[in-house]
Amino acid sequence: VIALCILYEEARFEEQQRTKSSIIERLIHQQNVASIEASLKFLPFKFSPPYTVATIQITPCSTRSTDIDYYEQIVQLSRLFEQWSSRTIITAIGEELVLVTSHDDPSITHFKDVCQKIVTVFAERQQLMYNIGISTHFTHFTQFEQAFKEAHIAQNFENNEAITHYKELGILGDFVTNMSVEQIHQLSEKMLRGLYDYTNPRIHELL
Asked: Do 55 and 151 form a contact (C-beta atoms < 8 A)?
């Protein structure tokens, strides 16, 4: 009987995870919003606005660490989100994790606390480094693309912080959002001029 209960729980978890992954993947590929909203009823918790998107990049703390098992990361994080009462769906896209969270209030204070626990407890225990970027909150899935972009900008912002919220970047975040990587490099070269030439050993000394 116990074995059957365990098998049932595993099957239930896998089915729920397929639903969560499907919702995020369809949001990323900008599929029919109405069909995505219809899928929310299959989630084990109420999933309503405001929402945020978070992206997580994971790297080993040392070169001796083993390869990252992203499915295992999803399994463990999903259980932690449930334990910490965070209404979060999660999936792996390539070599990063993508999270969409439903919040009780726009301040998303609870989710920030959850992310801090992930970084200081969960990740360190596994000898992994988590780099988390969090978008501003949004109220409709048609705004997902912008929020996804914000999460990536926050995650890739080089400030030596494990967790970066897009709104903390202020006007700089809005500035970068509307530019391509090539445009950012071109503007940097124009503004910094000779300082942008990293091949010059004298510039390396100055920096």
From this structure: yes
d(Cα 61, Cα 83) in Å, to the nearest integer? 26
- Please tell me the distance from the alpha carbon of residue 24 to that of residue 87, in angstroms, as a whole number: 14
What are the E-state strand segments in 40-194? 51-60, 87-93, 96-102, 128-134, 163-165
pTM surpassing 0.85? no
Give the chain's end-to-end CA distance (angstroms, integer): 66
pLDDT (tens digit per residue) in 91-141:
999 889 999 999 987 777 888 889 998 888 888 788 888 999 999 999 999
* Beta bridge partner(s), residue 129: 59
Please tell me the least confidently modeled range out of 2-11, 20-29, 153-162: 2-11
How far is it, in rounded angstroms, from Cα 24 to Cα 12?
A: 19
